[in-house]
Amino acid sequence: MSLGLSLLDFAAVGGVDFAWLEHLVERATGWGGLVIIWIYSFLIAFALPGVSEVVLAAPLNLGLSGAATTTLIIFVSAFGKAAGSVFAFHIGQEAKESGRIIGFLRRSRFDIVEWSERQTVKIAQKWGYAGLALALCVPGFPDTISIYAFSVLEEDYVKFALATFVGSAGRLVLWLAGAEAVLSVF
């Protein structure tokens, strides 16, 4: 199944070429493809710009039903993103001390940090870790900003990992539901 998505559309930043990763995900077949999905999801949580929905385009052939394969992709991706988020969480804890990551984001070409900080602080103050899960459920929005913003504000590794797992899985389910609704119209 091809969704017409290109990882290069989502993963190229600062002149760094992630074409190798695009080729891996686009060719991820069999059970080893799940490892590639996990690695990509791990990296998208803290290092790669873009969105995580591209894992749904991996042409896995696991000998399972389509629904079982999709469920496994969602689980593996959410687990990978939760692991990457814990890594980002640790970096965020360190960023409280140095402020390097926030400075980098402030210098980025998008003025998304100021907007994201305001929204994230509001969500974190009102909803805590449930707010993080909800923020990560928004299809198409880069995860890295929410993850780093929450990592600086919060302190519990286990709750953080659970929130990112739930939010990541919820995001993929919502994306699939939206794609199915759109395709059913045509």
Short note summarizing the structure:
This protein is 72% helix and 0% strand. With 186 residues, it is an all-alpha fold.
Total number of helices: 8
The biggest sheet amounts to: none
Mean pLDDT: 77
Q: Please bin the fraction of helical residues.
A: over 70%
**Strand proportion:** under 5%
Counting helices, strands and paired strands, the structural category is mainly alpha
Q: Give the low-confidence spans.
A: 1-15
Determine the N-to-C terminus distance: 17 Å
Number of strands: 0
Q: How many domain modules?
A: 1
- How would you describe the shape? globular
Element-by-element helix/strand order: HHHHHHHH
**Computed Rg:** 16 Å
Pfam families: VTT_dom
Keywords: Membrane, Transmembrane, Transmembrane helix
Organism: Halogranum amylolyticum
Protein name: SNARE associated Golgi protein
